Amino acid sequence: ALGQVLQNEGVEAIVVSFLHSYANPDHELTAARLLAEANPAWEVIPSHAVCNEYFEFERTSTAAVQGYLQPLVAGYARQLHERLDTDGYPDNVLIMQSSGGVVPLWQVAQRAANIVRSGPAAGVMAAAALAAEAGFDHVITGDMGGTSFDVAVVVEGKPKVARTTKLDFRIVLKLPMIDVHTIGAGGGSIAELDHAGILQVGPRSAGADPGPACYGRGGTLPTVTDANVMLGRIDWQSPIGVDGEGTLDLDAAKEAVGGLGKLLSLGPEETAEAILTLVNHTMAGRTRLLSVEQGLDPRDFAFVAFGGAGPLHGAAIMREVGISSMLVPPEPGVLCATGCVIADIRHDLSRTLERPAEALTADEIDTVLDGLKQEGEAKMRASGVAMDNPRVSYAADMCYLGQIHTLRVPVESGASPAQLAAAFVDAYRGEFGNVLSEIPVIVISVICTVAATPPGRPKRRPREARPSPAKPAGHRPIYFGGWTEAAVYRRADLLPGMHFTGPAVVEQSDCTTIIEPGMTARVDGYGNLLVETAL
């Protein structure tokens, strides 16, 4: 009867969430089977299959996100597979997950919630890999595009992973996701006055159509891109990404920014500089949130700037935050695509125990961990993708009795309950500076990650870096509190070992990089542009 009601309502997906399905999924599976029999076209999602942990609200919320996305993702996956099959494409297609790993196309159709924010995650994975090659294990990544700025932290070569994320409208998603923070600050972000008459930039965006005023597509509102064009940071006469003799509309940019300036009683250049100063402050503030406010010293980190506009603003961000080094990859505008290419196939599995560590036995722990390992390896084999030997790692979410929040602690196979508790106490002391020695340690969940490298992953080899001054392709005035003649370099002309000083601009097909006065730049053996400044 319920099935008929849902069918009459035109339902496409059904989420089945029972309170204790993490402990015993039989009832959820039975309900899912009956619903599937009532209408095989439905996407039926048992909550334990999405998040097999005891947090009933978070599990249900995550399953609801899965239910919303699965019809769309599954339909897209089927169409893509059929199209590729018709065209004779023989290989597997791997899709990026928000955890930083990839899975085959048919598997992601069953794990739609795992691809939320997968694009930014890919960029962070690539940034971490490129930075490690260049000798930076601690980095802050900044991806600025047309509408947003994404920032993440990488410590000891590993991106920080969030176990629970709140999407828009505070919708909870309890899945492993690279911890990327996003704000509305991009090239298309609109500068305007708020209700109090104070200048703000974003989150409203001009988008691609009509876009910034300088695009000449009918946009009339001033944007970050218009300010960059006005101040010479973007070359309006020969802009990147424009074929042939195309130019940007400098007069339209001046008119849009100048109109805002009249409301602020500022000149055009001062208004444009105010727009850039404000958007840089906003991005620097979010960068501090992930570093200083988390007890991390930005001076210990390098900044990896990418995206179409990241290197345009990266120097200002590193100066604002107090970071001495910035790395600009060879192709910063497509770094997220690079992340998809270099990612591992990865499966994350978990199981709730919710028992005191002292009440567990080593055999119980081994049994659970081995079961998760076998399940992960089975998923690997089912993918049908040839790969190197899978790598298996374990962790446990633990807390003191009575606490709500947990700490995730790496554990080894064969660890005893006492070793689990000791690892938690060490992690707790490192996080909070003290321990609660009289309170029992509770093992909430154990986690197993199975990862493997697909064959054919590209490997970069460094070239010999021969120190030499770089020769500019030209010069043009750029505004840094006043007009200054700056050297213009072509990225394709910069070979390993070449170096130069700011003020300067580096242009390439996918982005523009600004080197501020007082900063130095050099090219390393991997083709990265390393920008440095004294703190």
Give the gist of this structure.
The chain is an alpha+beta fold and 535 residues long. It is built from 13 helices and 28 strands.
Describe the structure.
The strands form 8 sheets. Strands 5, 6, 7, 12, 15, 16, 21, 24, 27 and 28 form a 10-stranded mixed beta sheet that branches. The mean pLDDT is 91. α7 (224-230) crosses α8 (250-264) and α7 packs across α9 (268-290). Helix content is 33%, strand content 25%. The protein has 535 residues and is an alpha+beta fold.
Structural class: alpha+beta
Oligomer classification: single chain
- What radius of gyration results from the CA coordinates? 26 Å
Percent helix, as a range, is 25-40%
Number of strands: 28
The end-to-end distance, rounded to whole angstroms, is 70 Å
Q: How would you sum up the global shape?
A: globular
Largest sheet: 10 strands, mixed
Mean pLDDT metric: 91
Unreliable spans are none
Strand content: 25-35%
